[in-house]
TrEMBL record:
Its cofactor is FAD. It comes from the Bacteria. Keywords: FAD, Flavoprotein, Monooxygenase, Oxidoreductase. This is FAD-dependent monooxygenase. InterPro entries: FAD-bd, FAD/NAD-bd_sf, RIFMO-like. Gene3D superfamilies: 3.30.70.2450, 3.40.30.120, FAD/NAD(P)-binding domain (3.50.50.60). It comes from Fulvimonas yonginensis. Residues 15-349 form the FAD-binding domain. Pfam families: FAD_binding_3 (PF01494), Rng_hyd_C (PF21274). One of its GO terms (molecular function) is monooxygenase activity. PANTHER family: BINDING MONOOXYGENASE, PUTATIVE (JCVI)-RELATED, TRK SYSTEM POTASSIUM UPTAKE PROTEIN.
């Protein structure tokens, strides 16, 4: 499904260039393509195929985001549904949360990327592969990417989705303050002559694990297949920066396990640490950052990939409206204002979880208390909502509890028949839902930009960790699924909200 594209500004190759074809970059490209923006991705890898397993799944809010675009089933068809939200050693059951996806999804990053690549191909997004970026220059009209082959590409806007060592962030001169690493681990996909003990193990040296890449989840437990490559995670002394090789992995295994289990034939070997950093700003004029280019942290809790995908969904529609000159340039500043605090909280929670992983007796005592506390109802709901991403609220001012939060995916009865609320977001356009007298609320000045739907809904308005809230008479839902305005019997503030989030009226 190739969409008609908004013309690129004069003197540019594309309206937007995205550096990096990981999950964040591809999600952003899809968002822009849905809005009809001429977007392309520049990627140094020659193939979409990703070596190894990398990140292991999707949290509930990310599944909702994908559902908002009508593609969640593509991921659910290939993954393993499970309760994956957790904090430290505590597993957080969210099966009773008010969402159509009260669970997480076990699915390796290489599969997530493959599915996203298929989606953006349907949307007609070009990917310039095998093109390594060496830097860029920007002016008042756009930015020009410099490539290692001597070529260049120009766009009105440039988005760095190129990871923690982001060339885009460094070239833009954006500070990346934070905390140095205190832990380091090697992660690899290998063959082993001897059978290691599968599962997660805690020793005085730290946490290490072995698992086959093919698995099933039965009764909440991981059951590994009998054959195939083995994924390994093993701690090492922090401070090393050179790329790890098989000899390093063997030495780390011997130090922790007393044997390397005959490790051989690595598909890939990498390193991760608990270095924790966040870009001082997500925007420098025509250049923006998303995903790991904007924030890095320990992978504990499985937040990174999910955080990046949600960055993309917050940024995409805003960038599209600015490019179309429907909204002022200042709308892009709300991207940093909304997403920076979300990532800052993730950085704090991952640092706390790393501290809980220490293996001394005092930390063991603390870990037991935390597990006991999170077994209680209110803490379980609060932390479950936080770790699953279902409690995110953007500061859009005071008012109804829905304001700034995710729109629940309610069953609606509309003039077109019954449908889910998220079905109305498949085209990535704002929606004004009117639950009062039919035709009593309109957005005539935004015709073609805002969908206006009269509806009734059955069921309660519930929010994770907050419970039931009073039913509104209308809501304005942004393309990212967050509520921008709540009607409580009047249309007070509606035109202001429409102008703020949907641009000036025609």
């Amino acid at each position: 499904m190739s969409l008609s594209k908004h013309a690129s500004p004069s003197g540019t190759d594309h309206a937007v260039l995205i550096v990096g074809a990981g999950p964040t970059g591809m999600m952003l490209a899809g968002e822009l393509a849905l809005a009809g923006i001429d977007v392309a991705i520049v990627e140094r890898r020659t193939s979409q195929e990703l070596a190894g397993s990398r990140a292991g799944g999707l949290h509930a809010r990310t599944l909702e985001v994908l559902d908002q675009r009508g593609i969640a089933e593509r991921f659910l068809a290939e993954g393993q549904v499970a309760q994956v939200a957790g904090f430290g050693s505590a597993r957080l059951d969210i099966s009773d949360f008010p969402t159509r996806h009260p669970y997480g999804l076990g699915l390796w990053q290489k599969h997530i990327e493959r599915i996203l690549a298929g989606w953006i191909e349907e949307l007609g997004v070009p990917v310039h592969r095998g093109r390594e970026v060496t830097g860029f220059a920007q002016d008042e009209a756009g930015a020009e990417l410099r490539l290692s082959d001597g070529g260049a590409l120009r766009a009105a806007y440039l988005v760095g989705c190129d990871g923690g060592r982001s060339v885009i962030r460094k070239t833009a001169g954006i500070d990346f303050p934070g905390w140095e690493a205190t832990t380091s681990s090697l992660i690899a996909q290998v063959e082993m002559t001897e059978q290691p003990p599968l599962g997660i193990h805690r020793t005085a040296a730290g946490i290490h694990s072995f698992g086959r890449l093919e698995y099933e989840i039965r009764g909440g437990e991981v059951v590994y297949k009998d054959a195939g490559p083995i994924g390994v995670m093993v701690p090492e002394l922090p401070g090393r920066t050179e790329p790890p090789i098989l000899r390093d992995l063997s030495a780390a295994l011997v130090a922790v396990c007393g044997t390397d289990y005959g490790v051989h034939s690595p598909t890939w070997i990498s390193r991760f640490t608990d270095a924790t950093r966040q870009a001082a700003t997500y925007r420098e004029r025509r250049v923006l950052l998303a995903g790991d280019a904007a924030h890095v942290h320990s992978p504990v809790g499985g937040q990174g990939l999910n955080l990046g995908v949600q960055d993309a969904v917050n940024l995409g529609w805003k960038l599209a409206q600015v490019i179309k000159r429907q909204s002022p340039d200042a709308l892009l500043d709300t991207y940093h204002a909304e997403r920076h605090p979300v990532a800052a909280r993730v950085l704090r929670t991952t640092m706390a979880q790393v501290a809980l992983q220490r293996t001394d007796d005092r930390t063991e005592a603390l870990r037991g208390i935390v597990v006991e506390l999170l077994g209680m109802e209110e803490p379980r709901k609060r932390f479950g909502a936080m770790m699953s991403g279902l409690d995110i609220r953007y500061d859009l001012g005071q008012g109804h509890p829905l304001l700034g939060r995710r729109m629940p995916d309610l069953d609606l009865l509309t003039p077109s028949g019954p449908m889910r609320a998220y079905t109305l977001l498949h085209t990535a356009r704002p929606v004004l839902l009117n639950f009062g007298k039919p035709g009593s609320l309109r957005a005539d000045g935004w015709k073609g930009r805002v969908g206006c739907v009269d509806a009734t809904c059955a069921g309660r308005w519930e929010l994770p960790a907050l419970g039931t809230v009073s039913a509104p008479t209308a809501v304005l839902v942004r393309p990212d699924g967050h509520v921008a305005w709540v009607g409580e019997g009047t249309d007070t503030g509606l035109n202001e909200a429409l102008t703020t989030w949907c641009g000036s009226p025609d």
